[in-house]
């Protein structure tokens, strides 16, 4: 396999290239039409759950571990062979069918990191039902808005999640969400966990009762273009976007990524320390490892304090992990607790071949630390919920090219990445601009937004005609390495979690004392970025700033969740605006990000910028990297 050859062919003969890749999976009906009208493999038929389970059982992997569940927070370890996982999934699919779920129905899964979450996902896929997993850290209104948009027949959840040693009861959240939602969910299935007992009534049923006695269901052949799942992600407003993933392109792209990007072979142990609620969890905890015949690890815990900062090393050593993938923020947390990696000495990491990092830019200091302590290639690679697999990486499965700290290396085959200026012109090497991808996007990427194709166009294809708009800014250096410098829109990355500042603004603006506001992301040494609210008070309102801050913090926590890490707000007299009254968020971000900030001429009163800067410092927002001060 040659990266350069693959890349060139994916550009010059994209249908031929992807036809060849499609032959790496077993179809029920082989596709003849490779690409038509924006969709991949349109006349192919397959089933993703069959490919992930039955195929391997029939091809000699029945007794190999498919999934290892390691949960330090509940002191539980459990292994599922491919045969056992297939049995559990077939029975759960039978239970869904018994409950009336048919192809095309939606099922929302709001669960912590437990095997039943994976089983429920694969059970939906088996029937051609569409799952929509909601991250367990989201608050009730977030769950409600996803239920409203997806209109599921069923909601599958658990009695609680566990954060370190804290039990998070889910039932109150679920009850609130169902109360807020305008959609009527027929049944709510609860996995009852011993850490939190609840009583059930009406439409509620326990997971064990739900699956008990169900007749195992076979995998249903579906069209390659049928929807496998909807995964909501933050956009620029409070309404999350339902990213649609289809069966065919997804399976082909993930199989290809496992061999080219990750250098994985069937039988390898692949561990992605993320959460099934995020795209990384969908692609690289569940689908890609299982489609490839690997053993995947489901870790219910954190990198630190479970029980210490050696949790990552323990798992790699205990299970012989070959490929490890996590977010840089997780390693920043480990390094903070154990800067000299003393805990590493207790473990043998000889199985580990490569470490992959994504979710946010890897800061050079964390990168160098990891290279030093691990002695294996450390690959920063870049992608998004929308693409489902890496846009740029080092192609570890083909060749080990030199890496540059701070860069996500090179575009992967199928992704024609360009850097465009505001005038739609391509930027010279070294010059920053919008990072875009020439259409069509390769298989695996979103074909549309759930039931809102207009939003797909508005969000992704209109900024630069003919190109997919990633929302990231960046540049290619002289050697062709891609550097992703951060979002250019109202999306921020907090501890590897993608959040919308626009949504937080809507919440802050609802406070009765607030006349107008802006929420901006500022650099943070641990979380990468954290949101800060800047508020202008209504005339005549007299509220203590500390009280206002604690009320706003509580509001954002109740409506988005603790993961927003919204902990600071500042009162300012005015917000910088254009002459037409548009708040200049980008400008405010630059205040804290730029070495030498030059206010643009469009601002009414440049002095306000100095005031905000002074206030940000005066109020002691200690974590802000105010490089200009
Ligand atoms: N359920 C309920 N609450 C949750 C939660 C969940 N699933 N996940 C996080 N929270 C809560 C935390 O308990 C914390 O609450 P607190 O403010 O009361 O302390 C708050 O949300 C903030 O969480 P976070 O910023 O994630 O901090 P943390 O200390 O809990 O964890 C990391 C730090 C680095 C381990 C974690 O952020 C992480 O794993 N990030 C990587 C994310 C990721 O995998 N992204 C995908 C790309 S690979
Ligand atoms: P998500 O959709 O949650 O996976 O978040 C995608 C966003 O995370 C991207 O648009 C980037 O802003 C950011 N991101 C992911 N990986 C990287 C990376 N390796 N370097 C820089 N930013 C990244």
From TrEMBL:
Residue ranges occupied by any AMP-binding enzyme C-terminal domain in the UniProt entry: 503-582
Taxonomic placement: Bacteria, Pseudomonadati, Pseudomonadota, Gammaproteobacteria, OMG group
Protein name: Propionyl-CoA synthetase
Enzyme Commission numbers on file: 6.2.1.17
SUPFAM superfamilies from the UniProt entry: Acetyl-CoA synthetase-like
Gene Ontology molecular function: propionate-CoA ligase activity
Species per Swiss-Prot/TrEMBL record: OM182 bacterium MED-G24
Domain Acetyl-coenzyme A synthetase N-terminal: from-to ranges: 3-50
Record keywords, A-Z: Ligase
């Amino acid at each position: 396999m040659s990266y350069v050859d693959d890349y060139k062919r994916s550009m010059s003969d994209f249908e031929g290239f992807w036809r060849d890749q499609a032959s790496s999976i077993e179809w029920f009906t082989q596709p003849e039409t490779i690409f038509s009208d924006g969709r991949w493999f349109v006349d192919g038929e397959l089933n993703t759950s069959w490919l992930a389970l039955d195929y391997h059982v029939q091809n000699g992997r029945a007794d190999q571990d498919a999934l290892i569940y390691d949960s330090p927070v509940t002191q539980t370890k459990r292994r599922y062979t491919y045969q056992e996982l297939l049995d559990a999934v077939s029975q759960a699919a039978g239970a869904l069918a018994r409950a009336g779920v048919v192809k095309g129905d939606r099922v929302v899964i709001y669960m912590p990191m437990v095997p039943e979450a994976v089983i429920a996902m694969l059970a939906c896929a088996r029937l051609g039902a569409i799952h929509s997993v909601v991250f367990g850290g989201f608050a009730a209104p977030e769950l409600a808005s996803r239920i409203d948009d997806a209109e599921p027949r069923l909601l599958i959840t658990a009695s609680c999640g566990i954060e370190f040693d804290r039990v998070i009861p889910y039932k109150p959240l679920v009850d609130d969400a169902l109360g807020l939602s305008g959609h009527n969910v027929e049944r709510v299935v609860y996995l009852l966990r011993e850490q939190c007992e609840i009583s059930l009534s009406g439409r509620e049923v326990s997971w064990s009762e739900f699956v008990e006695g169900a007749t195992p269901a076979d995998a249903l052949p579906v069209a390659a273009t049928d929807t496998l799942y909807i995964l909501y992600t933050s956009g620029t407003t409070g309404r999350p976007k339902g990213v649609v993933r289809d069966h065919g392109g997804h399976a082909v792209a993930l199989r290809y990524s496992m061999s080219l990007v990750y250098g994985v072979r069937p039988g390898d142990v692949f561990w992605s320390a993320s959460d099934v609620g995020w795209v990384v969890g969908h692609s690289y905890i569940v689908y890609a490892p299982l489609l490839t015949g690997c053993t995947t690890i489901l870790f219910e815990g954190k990198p630190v304090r479970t029980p210490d900062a050696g949790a990552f090393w323990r798992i790699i050593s205990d299970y012989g992990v070959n490929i490890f993938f996590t977010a840089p923020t997780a390693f920043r947390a480990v390094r903070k607790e154990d800067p000299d990696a003393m805990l590493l000495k207790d473990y043998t990491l000889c199985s580990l071949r490569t470490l992959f990092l994504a979710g946010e830019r890897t800061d050079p200091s964390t990168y160098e630390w990891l290279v030093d302590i691990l002695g294996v290639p450390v690959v920063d690679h870049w992608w998004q919920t929308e693409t489902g697999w890496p846009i740029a990486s080092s192609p570890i499965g083909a060749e080990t090219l030199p890496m540059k700290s701070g860069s996500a290396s090179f575009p992967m085959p199928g992704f024609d990445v360009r850097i465009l200026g505001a005038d739609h012109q391509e930027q010279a090497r070294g010059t920053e601009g919008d990072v875009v991808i020439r259409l069509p996007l390769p298989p695996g990427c979103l074909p549309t937004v759930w039931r809102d194709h207009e939003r797909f166009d508005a969000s992704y294809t209109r900024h630069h005609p003919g190109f997919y708009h990633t929302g990231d800014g960046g540049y290619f250096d002289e050697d062709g390495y891609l550097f992703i410098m951060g979002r250019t829109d109202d999306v921020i990355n907090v501890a590897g979690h993608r959040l919308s500042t626009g949504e937080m603004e809507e919440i802050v603006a609802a406070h009765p004392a607030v006349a107008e506001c802006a929420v901006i992301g500022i650099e943070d040494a641990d979380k990468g970025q954290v949101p800060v609210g800047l508020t202008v008070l209504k005339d005549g309102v007299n509220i203590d700033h500390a009280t206002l801050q604690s009320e706003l913090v509580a509001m954002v926590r109740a409506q988005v969740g603790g993961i927003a890490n919204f902990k600071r707000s500042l009162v300012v007299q005015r917000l910088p605006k254009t002459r037409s009254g548009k708040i200049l968020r980008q400008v405010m971000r630059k205040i804290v990000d730029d070495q030498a900030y030059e206010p643009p001429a469009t601002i009414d009163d440049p002095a306000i910028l100095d005031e905000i800067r002074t206030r940000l410092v005066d109020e002691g927002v200690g974590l802000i990297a105010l490089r200009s001060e």
